[in-house]
Design a protein that fits this description.
Layout: H1 4-31, E1 36-41, E2 44-46, E3 49-52, E4 56-62, E5 71-72, E6 88-93, E7 97-102, E8 110-115
Length: about 120
């Protein structure tokens, strides 16, 4: 018959494993890049230029009264559909570099994201 001390030892070992797994999960969440918001309003992207760490999700929200798009200069890295008022588009930047983008409906609307 197993002793009570044996069962307490097993319980302590299991609890220690749970704490280790939970702690590692917390550290992983702490290292995640905070999401970034960009506003589309008055025919402009705000902020105009932003620097973020790799792994950052950027979300554009159209707060203008007319549709706009968000399109990378190469037209392939990211491309939104026409966003109506209050619609959003998100993209996660995983690779370092400079990403210039524009509104395909209003090509003079331009901005830049620098990913480090």
């Amino acid at each position: 018959m197993k002793s009570r001390l044996h069962y307490l030892g097993i319980t302590a070992l299991i609890l220690s494993a749970i704490v280790i797994v939970s702690t590692q999960g917390l550290f992983a969440a702490d290292n995640a890049a905070a999401p970034v918001a960009i506003k589309i309003d008055n025919f402009s992207f705000t902020p105009q230029t932003i620097t973020v760490p790799a792994g950052t999700q950027v979300t554009w929200t159209n707060q203008d009264d007319i549709p706009h798009t968000v399109v990378s200069d190469d037209k392939t890295t990211f491309k939104s559909h026409a966003l109506d008022t209050d619609e959003k588009f998100s993209f996660t930047f995983t690779k370092p570099g400079t990403y210039e983008y524009f509104c395909s409906i209003h090509p003079k609307m331009t901005a830049k994201i620098v990913v480090q």
